[in-house]
Amino acid sequence: MSNKNQRARIPIVSRNDQLAGLVSVTPKRFGDHRGFFAESYSRRGYAGLGIAAEFVQDNHSLSAQRGTVRGLHYQAPPHAQAKLVRCGRGAIFDVVVDIRLGSPTYGHWAGCELSAQNGAQWFIPVGFAHGFMTLEPDSEIIYKCSDYYAPETEGSLLWRDPVIGIHWPLEGDVTISDKDAVAPLLADLESPFIFKG
């Protein structure tokens, strides 16, 4: 990754300032008449941006319909996950909610558009619930995780909790799993995360 690629200027939409620990990155693309080449991850380069997580698993999901919502999800310790998220095809509105007890931004959210076209990525540290809404059909999301999937530690928040107040870009009917549709409210969350300043 070129050292010209410091923190990218990905539009962040939030009800507060950008949340502590989030890092947005847009790897440099080298293009010609054939297309482009980019390093989507470099441990050395990302460490220089403050991303020192050791990733152990890559996940890849396809959402066929525009307006599909997945989340808001997290894994509790001892299997908490930091994530590096990008969109390989289509576009998504990616969202996080701070659920670190004692954090000055507890319950606040931030979101940004990740797309195949903009090449943007978002590093999400441990202590955030994460989800997204697809903005185009057949959107593919690819993300690195710092711990393995452990279903017994899964937790979730309701994607449209009015107290959190996420401004989702698409209105009307959404495609969502039965499980995500009845996720708990923030007021009912017993967060397993502690803010460490």
What does this molecule look like?
- The protein is mainly β and 197 residues long.
- The protein has one domain (13-21, 57-188): Sandwich (Jelly Rolls).
- It has two helices and 15 strands.
- The chain has helices spanning 43-47, 178-181, and strands at residues 13-14, 23-25, 30-32, 35-37, 57-63, 69-75, 83-89, 91-98, 100-101, 109-115, 121-124, 128-134, 139-145, 154-156, 193-194.
- The strands form four sheets. The protein has a six-stranded antiparallel β-sheet, with no helix packed on it.
- A hairpin with a 2-residue loop joins strand 3 and strand 4.
- The longest helix has 5 residues, at 43-47.
- Mean pLDDT is 89; it is low at 1-17.
Order of helices and strands: EEEEHEEEEEEEEEEHE
- Poorly predicted residue ranges: 1-17
* CATH C-level class: Mainly Beta
Overall helicity: under 10%
Strand order of the largest sheet: 1-10-8-12-6-14
Overall pLDDT, averaged? Answer: 89
Provide a count of the helices.
2
Query: What does the radius of gyration come to?
Result: 16 Å
Please outline the major beta sheet: 6 strands, antiparallel
CATH architecture: Sandwich
Amount of beta strand? 35-45%
Assigned CATH superfamily: Jelly Rolls
CATH structural fold name: Jelly Rolls
